[in-house]
Amino acid sequence: MTIKGYCSAAVCVCVLFCVTLRVSAENLVIYGDNSYPPIIYLDNDQTAGILPAIFARLEKDTGDTYELRLLPWKRALKNAQNSDGGITNISRNEAREKFYDFSLPIYDDDISLVVLKGHEFDFNTLKDLQGKKLGGLSGASYGEVVDQAISNGELHVERENGGQSRLLKLLAGRIDVAIIGNGIAGLEVILASDPGLEANRNQFVMLPKPLVRDPLHLAFSKAMNVQPALERFNKALVALKRTDEYQQLIGIKP
């Protein structure tokens, strides 16, 4: 083959490679919670938090574009159930597995228990929560075991949409325990977001043992048939998790 022939062949390979990338790459709408700091939330109408930072980083490796649309959690779930897009910061359970295709875990969320100072108690098993009024997030799953205990009536959980209102209810004595995501970091963000809570921050105590460690995922309804995009996402996620950069993205110094 002549030099001219080699050059032509090389150009064809490059063009084919670029076309393949364009064909495989997708623009994916992904819904999420607009008020779950510091994991995912809106800050002056802009997406913010740990998960958006991870998605932005993974775009570089997958070639896909992730268009995050953050809404109150129940609305985000409804849109995902209607196959309007995927959903993130979602827990995996048996019921959801029948409807969604899930990614590998993106981030492990410590779901913690917050009480008022002077009302601390030893928490070791779910039996320690029986007879107490808990405050939780509307539409949230807390894992198979906790969800089953709630469904069976063993645990009483009052649901609402935001961490602020949950802690205000705790402060007013309307609930006994507030369920808060992302451990102490999540509690700190909520306290700082409300002057009344900030002024009473010394009244809140987080129990040492979390309710559950909850892996958060990306998921799409099976009807959307986006397994190739999930495979690209998983491959890039596994590679990222091996790096110090991932630790920095989730707020841990390597």
Automatic annotation (TrEMBL):
Gene3D superfamilies according to UniProt: Periplasmic binding protein-like II
Domain of life the protein comes from: Bacteria
Keyword set includes Cell division: no
Key word Signal present: yes
SMART domains per record: PBPb
Record Pfam families: SBP_bac_3
InterPro entries: Solute-binding_3/MltF_N (IPR001638)
The entry's keywords: Signal
Domain Solute-binding protein family 3/N-terminal: 27-253
Leader sequence segment: 1-25
PANTHER family (UniProt xref): ABC TRANSPORTER SUBSTRATE-BINDING PROTEIN (PTHR35936:SF25), MEMBRANE-BOUND LYTIC MUREIN TRANSGLYCOSYLASE F (PTHR35936)
Family: Belongs to the bacterial solute-binding protein 3 family.
Entry protein name: Solute-binding protein family 3/N-terminal domain-containing protein
Organism: Pseudomonas fluorescens
